[in-house]
Task: inverse folding
């Protein structure tokens, strides 16, 4: 038994060791340089999004193309083309991804720099327009493959093949059309707002990014810990306390981040060990955190990208969307709380001693300034300012309040 335990321990050490430090053969100077480049692009993109959200309005194609160019560059610099591809030393994969990042910057810069000429020659495209469009679409597909996976990339490729073919004996009559040339497909997808730069990227480049940035600022200034502490102080003493803390904290965090993944990272690292400590089975603790964090995408006022997409596609005001969403979101969290409560009662799981919990009054006094940005955000939205302006004001007020 002891020899088996020792061998298991050694096996774990072999798995963990490469992750905890630089990989063997890594070029430290190269890693630091790439980290600096990525940081500069990310910070510049964030400042650009703030600038366009609250200070200046740019033409749609310019605003969206610059956003996409930066996102594509970050994707190629951070995501390897496949597992095992080394990018921490000079290699073919490193050179390839740097070239792809530069191409992404050029293809999107081409739109911004030649926008008036592109509008003037709609349909009468230059050879350069065609090749830039082809390269841009390939770059988007490759970024999609690296981030989302082969299935979504395959769906996109099939859709383009259908646009090209669209006729013939193998296409049902109800789906048949005359088919379009490669030039028309490529230029429509890349040089107009009917393809890559349509409504989804409009929402991502405006509302979604600015609110994700707001959540990141709030988290990095200590707001995330404040919401966890206040939830823990309110629910920790009840049966299954840490699980209820997870639900309440995820609701608080979700209301300002709109991200299920961000919710898990912010609250799960604290609540999952606490749930296991009081007796929750590991898979139940993980499931509770996952369910509670997923609800963050339903909780107003942020609601991830869903609220903004619904507002754009249905031509409904964003304020109306969040009003309608409030009751279902609360019902969702009440349902999760009921599940947590009955799970705790079923297995006799008690809460934490009152002495070990933070005091509600002290937590509120020490973190009251974190409520200010959220209150300002709700006030601005209720007064019918645009979501972009609301996000801009929320970010600025978070920095000021912190």
Result:
């Amino acid at each position: 038994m002891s020899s088996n335990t020792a061998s298991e321990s050694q096996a774990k050490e072999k798995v963990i060791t490469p992750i905890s430090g630089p990989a063997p053969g890594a070029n430290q100077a190269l890693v630091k340089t790439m980290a600096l480049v990525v940081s500069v692009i990310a910070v510049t993109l964030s400042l650009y999004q703030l600038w366009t959200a609250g200070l200046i309005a740019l033409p749609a194609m310019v605003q969206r193309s610059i956003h996409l160019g930066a996102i594509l560059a970050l994707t190629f610099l951070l995501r390897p083309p496949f597992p095992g591809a080394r990018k921490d030393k000079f290699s073919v994969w490193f050179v390839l991804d740097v070239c792809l990042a530069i191409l992404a910057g050029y293809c999107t810069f081409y739109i911004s720099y030649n926008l008036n000429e592109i509008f003037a020659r709609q349909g009468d495209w230059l050879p350069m327009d065609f090749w830039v469009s082809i390269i841009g679409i390939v770059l988007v597909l490759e970024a999609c493959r690296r981030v989302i996976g082969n299935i979504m990339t395959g769906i996109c490729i099939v859709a383009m093949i259908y646009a090209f073919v669209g006729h013939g004996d193998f296409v049902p009559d109800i789906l048949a059309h005359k088919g379009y040339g490669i030039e028309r497909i490529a230029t429509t997808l890349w040089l107009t707002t009917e393809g890559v730069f349509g409504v989804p990227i409009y929402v991502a480049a405006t509302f979604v990014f600015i609110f994700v940035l707001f959540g990141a600022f709030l988290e990095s200034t200590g707001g995330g810990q404040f919401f966890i502490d206040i939830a823990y102080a309110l629910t920790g003493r009840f049966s299954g306390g840490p699980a209820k803390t997870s639900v309440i904290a995820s609701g608080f965090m979700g209301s300002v981040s709109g991200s299920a993944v961000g919710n898990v990272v912010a609250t799960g690292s604290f609540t999952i060990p606490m749930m296991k400590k009081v007796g929750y089975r590991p898979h139940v603790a993980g499931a509770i955190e996952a369910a509670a964090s997923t609800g963050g995408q339903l909780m107003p006022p942020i609601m991830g990208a869903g609220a903004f997409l619904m507002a754009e596609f249905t031509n409904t005001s964003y304020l109306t969307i969040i009003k309608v969403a409030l009751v279902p979101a609360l019902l969702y969290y009440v349902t999760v709380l009921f599940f947590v409560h009955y799970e705790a009662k079923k297995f006799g799981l008690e809460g934490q001693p009152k002495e070990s919990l933070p005091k509600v009054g002290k937590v509120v006094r020490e973190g009251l300034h974190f409520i200010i940005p959220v209150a300002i955000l709700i006030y601005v939205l209720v007064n019918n300012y645009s979501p972009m302006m609301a996000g801009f004001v929320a970010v600025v007020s978070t920095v000021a309040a912190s």
Notes: The radius of gyration is 25 Å.
